Amino acid sequence: MRKLDITTPIAILGAGAMGGGIAQLAASSGHSVVLFDSNPEQIMRAQSAIDKTLKRQVEKGQIDEAKARSILKRIILAEDVDAVRECGLVIEAIIESLKAKQDLFSRVENLVSTDTILATNTSSLSIASIASACRNPGRLVGIHFFNPAPVMPLVEIIPGILTDADVSDAARGLIDRWGKTTVLAKDTPGFIVNRIARPFYSESIRQLEEGVADAPTIDWAMRERGFRMGPFELMDFIGNDVNYKVTEIVFESFFYDPRFKPSLTQKRLVEARLFGRKSGRGYYDYSAGVPAPEPNKDSKLCEAISSRVLAMLINEAADALFMGVASKIDIETAMTKGVNYPKGLLHWADELGIENVLAQLEALHQEYGEDRYRPNPLLRRMAKAGQSFF
Ligand SMILES: NC(=O)c1ccc[n+]([C@@H]2O[C@H](COP(=O)([O-])OP(=O)(O)OC[C@H]3O[C@@H](n4cnc5c(N)ncnc54)[C@H](O)[C@@H]3O)[C@@H](O)[C@H]2O)c1
Fold first, then answer.
1. Distant-in-sequence, close-in-space partners of 4: CB < 8 Å, separation ≥ 6
2. How many A from CA of 56 to the centre of ligand 1?
3. Closest atom, ligand 1, to C-alpha of 94
4. Domain of 123: which CATH number?
5. What is the number of domains present in the chain?
6. What are the catalytic residues?
7. pLDDT of 161-214, one tens digit each?
8. Which of 18, 43, 119, 215 is the most exposed place for a label (fewest CB within 10 A)?
């Protein structure tokens, strides 16, 4: 396999939200970049978005004008996929469609050199399924950036079942040199972050549905617990359509495990096109002049709401470890750097006491009789042995 360094020309396939950001990041790290999209308008939009971001960086004094110009000059815009021929690394960020990704990779594989590394930024498809379109699936790896790619520090590296070790090592080494924090994830639904974070949303919605508290109170309770944003304001920010889709895909991909079941409340919001901030209304109404609703600042309620969500998050983090999705350290890093959690969930479990977290999950499991609340065997074993994660 070709070594990846600063002299490696990089192709980015897809100039949407992610592709544009990754192109900017690669060019800022010194690479010459080919940015390809099948839609010429999208390429122009990406270029002007990058231009705008760089201008802002100049205004803030983060880079000088000469540097901004050189970054922009390093990005070659391409309407024809043939332009990727000389690239040593190809990062695909086109629409989330297995067929589209497979078709594109089988074309690209014939254009580039045999030692070019192929990568996909997919959020929800398996690396194995995308790589199956290649004659040499060993050279394809998942490189999962978070939005916006130039800003978010975390990148998940996902080797597929057939990915060569030197391919994922080379990809990880390069992204580390770009100043990102990489974690290694198994090719399983949602990888690390999008899997473990599900209960932050679902258990909060569940409590809303049960009438435990309203959205502003649950948001307040989670902020009190140290989260930067409450679940409802965050879902409205991400977009309920986007957030619901991730939940739905993770649920389906886990063969309908009830732990990941989506909620009707969020589905109805999506059906009514109440996407959140971008549509003017979601869980909250963002119309001008509408005052922000007040939470019920009851400390007992805060504790009850937030510890229920936290216990479910810890259960998911424990499951990811138990199932070998990632190492302890990578699970902690992923949640603190990928979604800004105030602490790693496994450290949090130690702090609360594994036996206390387990007792809460067991109480929920018994009360509801739902598989959704089943405690992970790792927590049971650890509690029995009096162990902690760290
Ligand atoms: N948006 C996010 O928060 C996020 C985060 C991480 C990963 N991802 C993943 O990154 C990928 C891109 O997401 P996005 O949000 O940038 O999407 P987007 O819709 O903003 O952009 C997709 C781009 O792909 C182009 N395209 C579609 N088919 C193509 C083809 N056959 N050849 C070339 N270009 C084609 C479209 O014209 C569009 O510009 C998806 O796989 C998504 O799951 C998204």
1. 88, 89, 117, 170, 171, 173, 174
2. 24
3. 24
4. 3.40.50.720
5. 2
6. 123, 144, 156, 194
7. 999 999 999 999 999 999 999 999 999 999 999 999 999 999 999 999 999 999
8. 43
